[in-house]
Amino acid sequence: MTKSYRVAILGATGAVGTELLELLEQRNFPVSDLKLLASERSVGRTLQFKGENLPIESVSDRAFENVDLVLASAGGSTSKTWAAIAVEKGAVVIDNSSAFRMNPEVPLVVPEVNPQAAANHQGIIANPNCTTILMAVAVWPLHQVKSVQRIVAATYQSASGAGAKAMAEVKNQANAILQGHSPVAEVLPYPLAFNLFPHNSPLNDFGYCEEEMKMVNETRKIFGTQEIRITATCVRVPVLRAHSEAINLEFEEPFSPDEARDILSRSPGVKLLEDWESNYFPMPIEATGKDEVLVGRIRQDISHPHGLELWLCGDQIRKGAALNAVQIAELLVEKNLLKPAQVYVSR
Ligand SMILES: NC(=O)c1ccc[n+]([C@@H]2O[C@H](COP(=O)([O-])OP(=O)(O)OC[C@H]3O[C@@H](n4cnc5c(N)ncnc54)[C@H](OP(=O)(O)O)[C@@H]3O)[C@@H](O)[C@H]2O)c1
């Protein structure tokens, strides 16, 4: 008989939470009991799972009793408050927030890249940042063949990257502008409809924002090397869903576009999408709702003999967050690693 698990989604009403719910059903994850947790604001609401209306409960100590797996997507401070409590009560937590990603005790896992890291979990496994996951899935197979020395990334990040409310805000702004009114920005700092702006996460002393530094530090942790030089410029664009990235890679030796294409066409989690005659390449509308990271426009960097350029689009709510988390959960089930931690991560 297949074993099944008692699962809780913390942040069930959010952009990532609702996707988690859908994926557990679509992928037939072995769930024996499902708890949907969110803030007090959502108590009284219900969400459907396998044809059943499940109530939203507010998060509390008691909510984590008799739970084997917590899929957390309620922001960093909520995870910092509740993850250790859930672990103490015997659950394994897969956390979508940035709260534990760079904690050396916590594995940071992209199943296509470093599934082995999950085996070392001590109760919490971190899901990487969404732009980082998409880039890692595409770059890792190439890095396996010829070591990448430097990555220069520019991102084009959709509104939903800032959550369900940001996505609604952009729609409202677009409506307002089309009706001749001024757009209102409350969730994001500036109007995003018919506009774009550099990512609004806090800036460090070197002028890099947090999102850019996540791409630098998390990629190195996932790839298991501090040697790769990485720089990024992250930008929010008025796309509702799915992020895009322009990536320049410098390898230790020349890497032909055809060789890269051949490797990527066989790589897990990647789908090549290139029609040079029609100038047809990955677009966010194509990536929306898809599991794979779409990669195209692979070309020689004319400014460097060891350089390659590529373009990718990926559904950051799906592979960049919820799907990656569910894949980690599936990995834990497959390897029998979904059991109470022996060691607790310090709070
Ligand atoms: N959106 C993305 O593309 C993406 C990608 C990767 C990672 N992430 C990360 O995933 C997490 C969730 O993001 P999201 O985009 O889904 O955000 P969201 O749409 O704003 O949803 C946030 C969720 O957290 C709940 N929540 C907020 N404060 C809470 C509290 N104090 N106690 C309990 N629940 C609380 C909300 O419940 P209510 O509805 O009751 O307020 C809601 O369910 C964040 O850490 C984010 O950085 C997001």
UniProtKB/TrEMBL annotation:
Binding site for substrate: 157, 210, 236
Described function: Catalyzes the NADPH-dependent formation of L-aspartate-semialdehyde (L-ASA) by the reductive dephosphorylation of L-aspartyl-4-phosphate.
Biochemical pathway: Amino-acid biosynthesis; L-threonine biosynthesis; L-threonine from L-aspartate: step 2/5; Amino-acid biosynthesis; L-methionine biosynthesis via de novo pathway; L-homoserine from L-aspartate: step 2/3; Amino-acid biosynthesis; L-lysine biosynthesis via DAP pathway; (S)-tetrahydrodipicolinate from L-aspartate: step 2/4
SMART domains: Semialdhyde_dh (SM00859)
A molecular-function term among this protein's GO annotations: protein dimerization activity
Record's subunit section: Homodimer.
Residues that hold NADP(+) according to the record: 13-16, 41-42, 160-161, 316
InterPro entries: Asp_semialdehyde_DH, Asp_semialdehyde_DH_beta, NAD(P)-bd_dom_sf, Semialdehyde_DH_NAD-bd, Semialdhyde_DH_dimer_dom
Naturally occurring in which organism (per UniProt): Dendronalium phyllosphericum CENA369
Alphabetic keyword roster: Amino-acid biosynthesis, Diaminopimelate biosynthesis, Lysine biosynthesis, Methionine biosynthesis, NADP, Oxidoreductase, Threonine biosynthesis
EC class of the enzyme, as a word: oxidoreductase
NCBIfam families per record: asd_B, PRK14874.1
Identification of the protein by name: Aspartate-semialdehyde dehydrogenase
Binding positions for phosphate per the UniProt entry: 101
EC number: 1.2.1.11
Record Pfam families: Semialdhyde_dh (PF01118), Semialdhyde_dhC (PF02774)
Active site (record annotation): 130 (acyl-thioester intermediate), 243 (proton acceptor)
Homology family: Belongs to the aspartate-semialdehyde dehydrogenase family.
One annotated GO biological process: 'de novo' L-methionine biosynthetic process
Domain Semialdehyde dehydrogenase NAD-binding, first and last residues per copy: 6-121
Reactions mediated catalytically: L-aspartate 4-semialdehyde + phosphate + NADP(+) = 4-phospho-L-aspartate + NADPH + H(+)
